[in-house]
Write a structure and sequence with these properties.
This protein has 247 residues and is of the alpha/beta class. The chain is built from five helices and 14 strands.
Length: 247
C-alpha cells in the first residue's frame, strides 16, 4: 500500500505535520505527495514558516541544513540528516537533539556556510537537484552572496531558492519555464558580459545587458503560460513572484 501523503495543519499559529486525514476529517491547508521527494536544504536567513514552506521541508529527502538552518527545522520538529558549516550559530539545544553524527564541520572561513552546504550536496553526496529555503530575506550582504552562489552554479530549475513570496533560479543557455499570465517576473545578472533574451513577458528583451548596475528587467509581467529565457556568456537570475503575493 502506498504511503499516505504529508499535510501541514495550522492550529492557533502552530504547524503540525502528519499523514493526510481521511475524507471529511478536516480541511487541508497544504498537501504535497511524497511519490517524488526533492532534496531540501535550509539555510540561516530569517525564516517565518508558512504552511507551504513547512510542507516543502517535510517532504525533503534528504533534509539538510546549513548551520543554524537546523534551528529553523527544529522549530517544526524536523531533524536535519546533516548540518554543514562552521557550526558557530547552531544552538546547543538543537545540536544535542540531533546528535554529533549529524554534524558535518566545515571550519573554512573563506566560504559561507551555504557555499559549503552546496558543495556537500552536489559534490560529496552527488545529488543532482535541490530546493533551498531561507537563502534570502536576511542581511543584504548575505543575500547578495547567496544569489551570487546561485548564479555561479547556473543550474536552472535543478537548484531553486524558495521563499514565501518567490522562486529564484539561475539560467545558463536556454530554458522554458511554466508561467501564469499576470505573474511578476524579474531578470538580472551579476556579470555585464552576459547577454539575455526573454519571451512570454510584457517587456521582452533581446540580447540585452541586464547587469544590476545597468538596467535589470524588474517587475516584468508574464503574458502567456510560459516564459522563455536565454542567457549567453554566463547566468541570469530569474525571479518568479508567486501570483497570490503580487502587490
Amino acid at each position: 500500500m502506498p504511503e499516505r501523503p504529508l499535510v501541514v495543519l495550522c492550529i492557533d499559529d502552530q504547524f503540525t505535520i502528519e499523514p493526510a486525514p481521511s475524507p471529511g476529517r478536516g480541511a487541508l491547508l497544504y498537501h504535497e505527495a511524497m511519490d517524488q521527494p526533492r532534496p531540501v536544504l535550509v539555510a540561516g536567513a530569517p525564516l517565518v514558516w508558512t504552511a507551504g514552506l513547512a510542507a516543502i521541508a517535510a517532504a525533503g529527502e534528504p533534509l539538510l541544513a546549513a548551520d543554524s538552518g537546523a534551528d529553523h527545522l527544529a522549530r517544526l520538529g524536523l531533524r536535519a540528516s546533516a548540518v554543514v558549516g562552521d557550526l558557530d550559530s547552531l544552538s546547543a539545544a538543537t545540536r544535542s537533539w540531533l546528535g554529533e553524527p549529524a554534524m558535518v564541520p566545515r571550519p573554512d572561513q573563506d566560504r559561507t556556510d551555504l557555499d559549503k552546504a552546496l558543495v556537500y550536496t552536489f559534490e560529496e553526496l552527488g545529488l543532482e537537484r535541490l530546493t533551498v529555503l531561507a537563502a534570502t530575506g536576511g542581511r543584504p550582504d548575505h543575500e547578495l552572496a547567496n544569489l551570487g552562489l546561485l548564479a555561479r552554479r547556473g543550474m536552472g530549475d535543478a537548484l531553486r531558492f524558495e521563499s514565501e513570496r518567490e522562486t529564484l533560479i539561475a539560467v545558463c543557455g536556454e530554458l522554458v519555464l511554466e508561467a501564469e499570465p499576470g505573474e511578476t517576473w524579474s531578470f538580472w545578472t551579476f556579470d555585464p558580459a552576459v547577454r539575455v533574451s526573454t519571451e512570454g513577458v510584457k517587456w521582452r528583451v533581446e540580447d540585452a545587458c541586464l547587469h544590476l548596475s545597468a538596467r535589470p528587467s524588474v517587475c516584468n509581467l508574464a503574458v502567456t503560460d510560459f516564459v522563455r529565457v536565454r542567457a549567453e556568456g554566463g547566468a541570469v537570475i530569474v525571479m518568479r513572484q508567486h501570483l497570490t503575493t503580487n502587490a
